[in-house]
């Protein structure tokens, strides 16, 4: 099979990359416009922004038989649901333009990956990869630096394989002034073992593609690794699936949950007290008005106050739960080079 692989060379100073980091179109395998495959593909793609951003990962199919379409989307583990949704939205639109009428295609930005095909590619490891060395070189001791990069990313691979998100970030100090930040992620259809295999394969590519670079990215369809000497990912990452059963973060999650409950409880008590006072004031007012004109609006008013109160409590609880794990998108503004 002949695949067209295209990675774009660019200098990007905006928050979001303007070109995909990976574009994969199988131009040997086209469908005709208006065919069932095309209809199934549209049916698969349109709900993907909502479905994918709900948890950061979604795989599904549309249609049946030879015209069945298999699709997968995944967002980087450090982006917020909003960034995730808009990235998937963008890829679903762009893939139709960049890979017109192809029965198999993939598009990857730093924030998300979209892939579809006419065959069941789920859980099938593919080690195709692209490398993007940061053109700036590390000045001091590149050999020791490279070794530490390998150690950091290998450690992160082990951590990622134990997470349901198959995602991990971490930092290590190379010297007093130089830190190394790493990120690894596999698509969530991978088994733990295939995830490790993929990450190790890509990490092993770094000394080959990017010897001495102060940053690099190696990525493909099933996994990706990246390191830089500055934090390029959002540190307070969103946990799409809360790591309830992860050693180490358990206590932290527990105390956050307790804190959230306490905050909600305090806010609730304050609001109920406030509502009591409001109801009491309204009652007095109405009582005096009733005395004046004889109209009984008390029950309606009370219901309105209670409804208002319930809305406030729900909003506050919602906001509290959202505050944990919400990330803000961080820029990825490195200069990237094509390197096959
Ligand atoms: C498939 O479509 C692409 C783009 O529309 C075209 O370049 C390519 O030649 C087509 N391939 C075949 C086998 O018809
Ligand atoms: C997707 O993008 C289009 C414009 O390209 C916009 O009109 C639409 O509201 C977006 N949908 C979502 C779910 O973000
Ligand atoms: C980094 O090193 C490579 C080879 O070791 C060299 O080709 C490249 O010009 C260097 N880049 C800079 C910015 O010095
Ligand atoms: C990798 O993990 C090992 C064992 O936990 C640890 O000793 C080492 O410092 C770690 N290395 C890096 C670069 O994170
Ligand atoms: C990386 O570069 C260093 C010198 O900067 C060299 O000694 C080493 O052999 C190179 N490693 C590879 C894998 O090319
Ligand atoms: C928690 O993790 C342990 C080992 O990591 C596993 O055996 C157990 O089934 C997990 N429990 C839940 C509820 O996922």
Report on the structure:
- With about 350 residues, this protein is an alpha+beta fold.
- The protein is built from seven helices and eleven strands.
- It has helices spanning about 35-45, 50-55, 80-100, 140-160, 190-210, 250-295, 300-325, and strands at about 5, 20-25, 55-60, 70-75, 105-110, 110-115, 130-135, 165-175, 180-185, 215-220, 225-230.
- A hairpin with a 6-residue loop joins strand 3 and strand 4 (about 70-75).
- The longest helix has about 45 residues, at about 250-295.
- The structure holds 2-acetamido-2-deoxy-beta-D-glucopyranose (6 copies).
- One 2-acetamido-2-deoxy-beta-D-glucopyranose (NAG) binds near residues 135, 136, 137 and 212.
Q: What is the share of helical residues?
A: 40-55%
Strand content: 15-25%
Strand order of the largest sheet: 1-2-5-6-4-3
Query: What's the SSE pattern?
Result: EEHHEEHEEEHEEHEEHH
Query: Overall 3D geometry?
Result: flat
Report on the biggest sheet.
6 strands, antiparallel
Rg for CA atoms = 26 Å
Structure annotation, total helices: 7
- Which small molecules are bound? 2-acetamido-2-deoxy-beta-D-glucopyranose
* Number of strand elements: 11
| C-alpha termini separation | 18 Å
**Uncertain spans:** 1-16, 237-252, 290-340
Brief write-up:
The chain is α+β, with helices and mostly antiparallel strands and 340 residues long. It has 7 helices and 11 strands. It is found in: Secreted.
